[in-house]
Design goal:
By secondary structure, this protein is of the alpha+beta class. About 30% of the residues lie in helices and about 30% in strands. The protein has a 20-stranded antiparallel sheet, sandwiched between helices. Strand 19 and strand 20 form a beta hairpin.
């Protein structure tokens, strides 16, 4: 079983299921008829409607087994070892395993986040004469876990096995005719109840279990909550591992922020931005390419100010095949206009924009017109390997490529930047590369620091490093869109789309580069070695919907 899944699943079930059957009477209870569905909808019917979000994780062995088709032998051994170590930590006597003891009876798992409970001042040890404590202090959000019971007899056998565990204390109480069991292990309580013979409900706070019982008895559920019923059908991914449901995105963020003492109160402008997103549903699945994540955000078309436009994707063909990272899109100028419009409601943002405009005026540049105004077509930024000239130490350079319908303004901006560079004692020179006129900013003994030129009538590039200018300008080499690596990572992503994020993890430069930016160890590098690449894209079929898709392309297991 995947480690991330085990971390919350095994301890929760291990601590609570011991209470489900503790005697012969429990056997009779389990043999009774069961009702209710074990899918996400069935679980959502016992989750209170106040839940901020919920995640449903499948226990279907077929879906998880699909992951075994991927990964290097070293990575698979590492994951297996970590799972074995984790199982030993959860069950110290070593006689309990997920495969033998939990898998036979446990259906899908839903994890719901409920609003935090206000902390009453009386809960604190307050010295006499101390200032009044505000009553809006918050605890951590309540977590409620709902586990489907697909085989009651297997669950009974497991519960009896857990009875022999040392250090477990049990205490029963009654609520609305339902038996709540408090299980204390290592000083930490867990509360649980079995509802309708089909769902085990458990939580670290008793109040959360009581609310689930209220829901079971007829109060409104997460399944009937406005916005939830439409998203509980989930996202279509093959071999679904998990689905995430957020019926009220702005409300969730607002309540989670209110419950965190580290977060300041959200200003009205921020809340207005959040309300553009009404609900979110996401799914994680496994297919022949790797792990795929899809998300759908339902937007308020009246509040959504950004005018989405799909990207033709032609700009990718301007980069060489060895480009190992790429971000592409369309219409920077439109995005800038929306940002400027929104800054009117944010004094700090507006001030920052005015400062940027003022600084560029000293260089005779208009931020809105000269920098962003002409960027109205496709664009892309790519990282390209090179160890020559100024790039010798870093091992790669970058290129920005823009399509524009306003070549005159773009040329005028580049001329102004060349003039500014001359004032900094940088030599400006012209060079012909592959029949294209390229302007270079040269520094002594290191070659070109920056270069720019036109690839065709409407496409301009700016390259960091002279070798990168050569790679982009000289079209004798294969282009990125024809490479097997790029097609393998992005070819199955939805089209049309608004552009790509692409990262080729197979390139020799990529993993060392990631390792230089993050603190990674040998185990992390072993896992990364199983990843072919990462692809991400977004699309918006209409003004009320935004769809995201990401693929973690994995290497197949060697046969």
């Amino acid at each position: 079983m995947p480690e991330s899944k085990s971390k919350f699943f095994i301890p929760a079930v291990g601590a609570a299921v011991v209470v489900v059957a503790g005697s012969i009477a429990a056997y009779t209870y389990f043999k009774g008829s069961s009702g209710g569905s074990l899918d996400a909808l069935g679980s959502a019917k016992v989750v209170p409607s106040t839940a901020l979000m919920a995640t449903y994780i499948t226990t279907d062995s077929g879906a998880w087994a699909k992951l075994q088709q991927f990964g290097t032998p070293e990575a698979q051994k590492l994951v297996a070892k970590n799972l074995e170590d984790f199982n030993k930590q959860m069950f110290s006597d070593g006689n309990v395993s997920y495969e033998k003891d939990i898998k036979p009876w446990a259906g899908g798992v839903m994890i719901a986040v409920l609003p935090a409970n206000p902390v009453k001042p009386a809960q604190f040890n307050v010295p006499s004469g101390a200032p009044n404590i505000p009553t809006n202090l918050q605890q951590e959000p309540n977590i409620l876990i709902v586990v489907g019971i697909k085989d009651k007899l297997s669950a009974l056998n497991f519960a009896n096995k857990l009875k022999s565990q040392k250090g477990v204390k049990l205490q029963e109480s009654d609520y609305q005719g339902q038996k709540i069991i408090e299980t204390t292990e290592n000083g930490k309580p867990t509360y649980s109840v079995v509802l309708n013979n089909s769902h085990l409900v458990l939580a670290p706070q008793k109040q959360a279990v009581e609310k689930a019982i209220d829901t079971f008895k007829g109060q409104s559920s997460f399944a009937s909550k406005e916005g939830a019923s439409s998203i509980l059908k989930g996202v279509d991914v093959k071999n679904s591992l998990a689905q995430i449901y957020v019926p009220d995105y702005a409300g969730m963020v607002q309540q989670l922020a209110a419950g965190s003492p580290q977060v300041k109160q959200l200003p009205p402008q921020t809340l207005a931005q959040l309300k553009q997103i009404k609900s979110v549903v996401a799914g994680v699945g496994v297919d022949d390419a790797g792990v795929r994540v899809k998300a759908i955000a339902n937007l308020d078309p009246q509040l959504n100010k950004f005018q989405y436009q799909s990207s033709p994707g032609n700009i990718v063909g301007q980069f060489p095949a060895d480009t190992f990272a790429l971000v592409s899109g369309n219409g920077i100028s439109r995005g800038w206009e929306v940002l400027v419009e929104q800054s009117k409601d944010y004094p700090e943002m507006k001030q920052a924009l005015e400062q940027a405009r003022g600084q560029l005026k000293f260089a005779n540049l208009d931020l809105d017109k000269d920098i962003f105004g002409w960027m109205n077509g496709e664009f892309a930024f790519g990282a390209i390997p090179s160890n020559q000239g100024v790039l010798a130490n870093v091992g790669f350079g970058g290129a920005l490529v823009f399509d524009t319908s306003d070549r005159k303004t773009a040329e005028a901006t580049l001329t102004k930047l060349d003039t500014l560079a001359k004032t900094q004692q940088i030599n400006i020179a012209n060079r012909n590369i592959g029949g294209k006129d390229v302007t270079e900013w040269q520094i002594p003994r290191q070659g070109a620091l920056l270069a720019h030129g036109w690839l065709d009538q409407d496409t301009v590039f700016v390259a960091i490093g002279g070798p990168i200018a050569d790679a982009v300008s000289d079209r004798k080499n294969p282009s990125l869109d024809t490479s097997d690596a790029f097609k393998g990572v992005t070819g199955s992503l939805q089209k049309p789309n608004g552009g790509y994020f692409y990262l080729d993890m197979d390139k020799t430069k990529t993993v060392p580069l990631i390792n230089s930016f993050i603190s990674s160890n040998a185990d992390t590098i072993t896992i990364l070695s199983s990843v072919r690449g990462i692809g991400f894209t977004a699309t918006s079929p209409d003004k009320s919907t935004s769809e995201l898709e990401m693929l973690l392309a994995l290497k197949p297991t060697a046969k």
